[in-house]
Automatic annotation (TrEMBL):
InterPro entries assigned to the protein according to its UniProt record, in alphabetical order: Biotinidase/VNN (IPR040154), C-N_Hydrolase_sf (IPR036526)
GO molecular function annotations of the record: pantetheine hydrolase activity
The protein's name in its UniProt record: Vanin 3
Gene source species: Suricata suricatta (Meerkat)
Gene3D superfamilies to which the protein is assigned, alphabetical: Carbon-nitrogen hydrolase (3.60.110.10)
Gene encoding the protein: LOC115296559
Signal sequence coordinates: 1-22
Length: 129
């Protein structure tokens, strides 16, 4: 005698479908842009120069994200290196990185928002944690 487990799979499928159809749907946008790269990547640049370059790329990304949001996007994916580029040596990337506190530093930004850290606000914006 041949037995089949078809009814069991139909029952699982019948339970699963209403759950999937009840999920919200999202519109996603994927954005790629010609990243503005630094002129000199073999030389360490001042932090201020790195911030100017990153702000230029952030301006491009901000405009693209706002446009995608106005067109209905809920999730917007931007390039991994879209803020600073990718043509650095191990030494020359440092001005483009942010300082992250040592794990031994007992600071939770949400519970202690007044404490200052080495954060750099975008032009004309304040940093609030």
């Amino acid at each position: 005698m041949i037995t089949t487990s078809f009814p069991k799979y139909v029952a699982i499928f019948a339970i699963f479908i209403p759950c999937v159809s009840a999920l919200d749907t999202f519109i996603a946008a994927v954005y790629e842009h010609a990243v503005i790269l630094p002129n000199r990547t073999e030389t360490l640049v001042p932090k201020e120069e790195a911030l100017v370059l990153m702000n230029k790329n952030l301006d491009v990304l901000e405009n693209a994200v706002q446009l995608a949001a106005r067109q209905g996007a809920h999730i917007i994916v931007t390039p991994e290196d879209g803020i600073y580029g990718w043509v650095f040596t191990r030494e020359t990337i440092y001005p483009y990185l942010e300082d992250i506190p040592d794990p031994k530093v007992n600071w939770i930004p949400c519970t202690d928002p007044q404490r200052e850290w080495n954060l750099h606000a975008r032009r004309g914006q304040s940093v609030s944690l």
